[in-house]
Specification:
The complex is a heterodimer. By secondary structure, chain A is an alpha+beta fold. Chain A has 4 helices and 5 strands. Chain B is of the alpha/beta class. Chain B has a single domain, classed as Transcription Regulator spoIIAA, CATH 3.30.750.24. In chain B, strands 1-2-3-4-5 form a 5-stranded mixed beta sheet, covered by helices on one side. The termini of chain B are far apart. The chains are: A alpha+beta, B alpha/beta.
Chain lengths: 144, 111
């Protein structure tokens, strides 16, 4: 991956109240590219899902750090990495199945489906006991 | 609480305002469930016209309330869903089990 033209890093605690802050902070940084409101909402939604996964699944009842990196690359590519040092995912393929949730209850099991739906590329790296990294990529159009 | 609950005839209408994410969904869930058991209406209406942001936690909120109202032998109606909300809802197939009023064009348009 080439060097980003611009980049920001953010560390936040896995309190659920930070979900709103995380998606708004990332979208505020990404908004320096003059994209459509629809594309900005896509980014917000995908980030919200990834951060929620770290809070709900990665850390569960514990509180830990969530590391977010957002880079802007050539040709209006936005790349966002969301990493946690939580419990990790045993079976990534299964976790990414639509409507699958290891927790049940009111979790719809659609987090990864939504991330896939609103971005161009989604990569998930995880090691049980070590943590999970989610990389989201989106190429946006320049508004004329 | 960014929620208004009122009875409209036989229907219990819950209008949600602001952002629906995992953080806000918990309080919304408790308040709506409390209203379902208090009013015992046959129809629960969830109105999304004033929702400013929603991720998949909104789908979880709807599916959970659907299960709850079904336990009372009732039905669920969704109102005021934007095209964006509909796109997320459709990932779960909820449009096949709940009545959707208003914005029917969004139901068709959402892939």
């Amino acid at each position: 991956m080439l060097k980003p033209q611009n980049e920001m890093k953010l560390i936040l605690k896995s309190h659920s109240v930070n979900e709103g802050f995380a998606r708004v902070a990332v979208s505020a940084f990404a908004a320096q590219i003059d994209m459509t409101l629809e594309e900005l909402s896509d980014i917000k939604t995908a980030v919200s899902e990834a951060v929620t996964n770290s809070i709900v699944h990665g850390y569960g009842r514990k509180i830990g750090n969530i590391y977010i990196t957002c880079g802007i690359y050539d040709n209006n590519l936005i790349r966002i990495k969301i990493r946690d040092n939580g419990c990790g995912i045993e079976d990534i393929k299964k976790a990414m199945e639509p409507m699958y949730s290891s927790l049940g209850g009111d979790r719809a099991g659609l987090g990864f489906s939504v991330m896939e739906c609103f971005t161009d590329k989604l990569k998930v790296y995880s090691k049980p006991g070590k943590g999970t990294s989610v990389i989201l990529e989106k190429r946006v159009s320049i508004k004329c | 609480m960014p929620l208004t609950v009122k009875k409209q005839g036989e229907k219990l209408v819950a209008s949600i305002r602001g952002d629906i994410d995992h953080h806000s969904a918990l309080a919304l869930r408790n308040a709506i469930d409390e209203a379902i058991s208090r009013f015992r209406s046959k129809t629960l209406v969830l109105d999304f016209s004033e929702v400013t942001f929603m991720d998949s936690s909104g789908v979880g909120l709807v599916l959970g309330r659907y299960r709850n109202i079904c336990a009372y032998g009732g039905e669920l109606e969704l109102r005021g869903l934007s095209l964006r909300h509909m796109k997320i809802m459709k990932l779960s197939g909820i449009e096949k089990i709940a009545k959707i009023k208003g914005g029917e064009e969004n139901v068709k348009a959402a892939k």
